[in-house]
Amino acid sequence: xxxxxxxxxxxGxxxxxxGxxxxxAASAxxxxxxxSSLRGRxxxxxxxxxxxxxxxxxxxxxxxxxxxLDQLRARVDEVRSLxxxxxxxxxxxxxxxxxxxxxxVLAAAGVPSLPILEGGIVAWEAAGAPVVQGRLRWxxxxxxxxxxxxxxLVSILVSLVFPPARFVAGFVGAGLVVAAVTNTCAMALLxxxxxxxxxxxx
Length: 202
Hints:
By secondary structure, the chain is an alpha/beta fold. The protein has helices spanning 22-25, 35-39, 53-58, 76-84, 97-108, 120-126, 140-159, 166-182, 186-191; strands spanning 2-3, 32-33, 45-49, 59-60, 65-66, 88-92, 116-117, 132-133. The protein has a three-stranded antiparallel sheet with strand order 1-8-4. The protein has a three-stranded parallel sheet with strand order 5-3-6. Strands 2-7 form a two-stranded parallel sheet. The termini are close together.
């Protein structure tokens, strides 16, 4: 993998927490970091990326650690130890949705509220911040849209000769509604376990 050579801006002082004084930024965790504010402190924090290993392998913040959301409950102590060591931990994902879910998982396990990267890796890359890139893979949200659409299309086509197949489309639609209401997605959890999203190390 190669690292983009984009260098952080040297203009001004190290970014501080939104709404706090610069002197408190390094000692007090905040609710979130914008890409520009985190960029100036990337060597002072530990970024934990909760996307799948495949997504992480495609592109991630330099020096970030990958702890997939579906493994987080089993690896809470790993995160807790970083916090206990005094490291500031920042949660990241593709757009911040999974990072917010990770906040909830960690909070339920007794880990203090951790800040997130606003907009995730999408916003980070759009801001021109440095990234580490590897083999390009579809992100999980794109895989969900493709799979859901394919299931609906196939079920409708099959229903032309086997009418009960149309209920599959209804089932998929209901699943998407539940995913929106609960902010979770069973299909995403299943897709995350595919070998495509779990590339072998090296």
